[in-house]
Amino acid sequence: MDFHNSSTVIIALIVSNIVSLFILWCSWKKPGIARFLFFLLFTWASFTNGSYSLTKPQVYIEYADFALLSMYKNFILGFFSQHITILVFTVAVSQFLIGVSMLMKGIIFRAGCWGGIIFLISILPLGLGAGAPSTLLMAAGLFLLWRKNISNY
């Protein structure tokens, strides 16, 4: 199957970008809602990735087809392909911690914002596989929350 021409990928791309625009808007105008949406997003991703890392780890190799940078593709097909479960499970734990940090205050919240920003920018070179440019929009939303120091909502 050619995932690049799949209507499912196109629909997922459109939906993810609309949701990301909404989260970005909420980060600007309704930070409490944005924080809750980031909590939902990261904890959902955590459970999804944690589950797949244990039950269907080979699905992550398909991301090589979407990689915009050869170093990402080479990493996925090389080292990553030999250690999928532990690497994806580690990502899942990190996503869970980022999600929970959205419910916290102070330095934990701010660290979670930066963890989320770094994660979202790191997966941007996966292109359509990461719903690009939705990850950049969400990173901008986290930056807005961090910049405003919105930790009391």
Question: How would you describe this structure to a colleague?
Answer:
- By secondary structure, this protein is mainly alpha-helical.
- It is 73% helix and 0% strand.
- It has six helices and no strands.
- It has helices spanning 7-29, 31-55, 70-82, 84-101, 106-123, 134-148.
- Helix 4 (84-101) packs across helix 5.
- The longest helix has 25 residues, at 31-55.
- The termini are far apart.
- The model has no long low-confidence stretch (mean pLDDT 92).
Can you give keywords for this protein?
globular, 6 helices
Q: State the end-to-end CA separation.
A: 45 Å
Backbone CA Rg: 16 Å
User: Would you tell me the structural class of the helices and strands?
Assistant: mainly alpha
What is the helix content? over 70%
Q: What does the main sheet amount to?
A: none
Give the arrangement of secondary structure elements.
Layout: H1 7-29, H2 31-55, H3 70-82, H4 84-101, H5 106-123, H6 134-148
Helix pairs in contact: 1-2, 1-6, 2-4, 4-5, 5-6
Task: Give me a quick take on this structure.
The chain is built from six helices and no strands. By secondary structure, it is an all-alpha fold.
